[in-house]
Protein: Cytochrome b5 heme-binding domain-containing protein
Organism: Discostella pseudostelligera
Amino acid sequence: MPPSIIQACLDEDSVILGGTSFAASVKSTATEPLELESRKGAPNTNTYTLAQVATHNTKGDSWIIYKNKVLDVSKWMSSHPGGEQTIMRFAGMDATDELRSFHDSWVLDTKLPHFVIGTVTDAPETSELVKDFRALGEVFEELGYYHVSPWYYVRKVATVFCILICSLWLLFMTETFVAHMVSAVLLGIFWQQFAFVGHDCGHMSARTHARDNIDVPRLGALVTFLNGISVAWWKATHNVHHAVPNTVDCDPDIAHLPVFALHKLMFESLFNKYHGRVMEFDWPARNIFVPYQHLWYYPIMCVARFNLYIQSVLFLLSSNDGHGGRTRLDTAAFVGFFSWLTALVSFIPTWGERVAFVLLSHAVAGLLNVQITLSHFSRPIFDSPTKEAGSNKYGGDFYTRNVISSLDVACPSYLDWFHGGLQFQTLHHLYPRIGRQHLRTIEPFIASLCKKHALPYSRKSFLECNMEVFQVLKDAALHSRTWSPLIYESMCAQG
């Protein structure tokens, strides 16, 4: 696929911004029905309606649709490497673009045929928006943007470990308080930067080609050992976040009660589908945290890393939820992190300096928490899928949902290291397997396609993003001060 085709996206009179479908301009099989055979090797002639498929939406009876083919994944769900909850969010629904987004073509072509049980007879016509985004993804694949140069991460990892070595040298080879605090700052930066590398590997976007044999459990354990946050826990939450971003009762990345509530819907003590429990808008939420959450935001981000430790412990100690990432190796790596960190801190001569070292290093690493929340906290919140129907579930189709719920950070290229790829949140959500090396290159094409389809692509400076999140938190905080559970119950009363 010649680069000239994708370059045409930037021209005002091009197929992207013009009236012609971009998909029609690209030779792509993205929108063609998948010719899958049944488990026994012969074409399956069973047919189902969308309404029939929708009834199979429970843990023990889960059907999903991929390119108009019906897949029964009920028995396999607990073996899904991305966790059963990711599949459960689309049980009984069409998950074509979700599957295409997270999996290589060879995986879909070789694995999915085993689950085909029939065909959908009344599938709606694919919209031009979806066709265009699928076609653009095919172009990116042809141009090799789903893979990176082998030297790209060699340099990244080498740089990250140089930061760690400098931190250790200052801690062990100097005796002044100032030098030790600089060491703490460097350790916090190491955690932030190494988390970016782990994030890329978790999305399988750090590969040189599609068939790279990445040992995810061992690589994840290494990240856990050095970074202190269970990669198994991260995978369980992050996959669901990507599937249903900013959905009020499904996305774990916005479920932060009693500390934060981003929307009045969260004042209703909703049942959270990820956590499997009611997220209570209780007394601490109503009186201590949420009414002043815009003032709590940065102080909490400074210590948010401690909460991630707690979440990791709870995840590793809980019963198996069907997520294949929870392993003894990850647990051992988690224990190993606290072992080496404890030994490191014990080298510091006084307790006061030890406490200062730990708090400062964790506050610096808390920059990552700010960067993550900036991407979504100020974006629209989607209502519960139980209140929506059809294409309106989860905010619409995959591409619309992820554009609306994401905010990009505008920054010069020399600050790309600081943001670690998170500044291109929109295109990362649209094509999560794109290598970080290529994100800046493809950003204009995403913006152009959003412009054609009148999608609200948002890109602001780091300062503006912070101000916007602060304002959203403040607005919700002020609203919570006038909200009453008695008023809410009276609005829901019948008769």
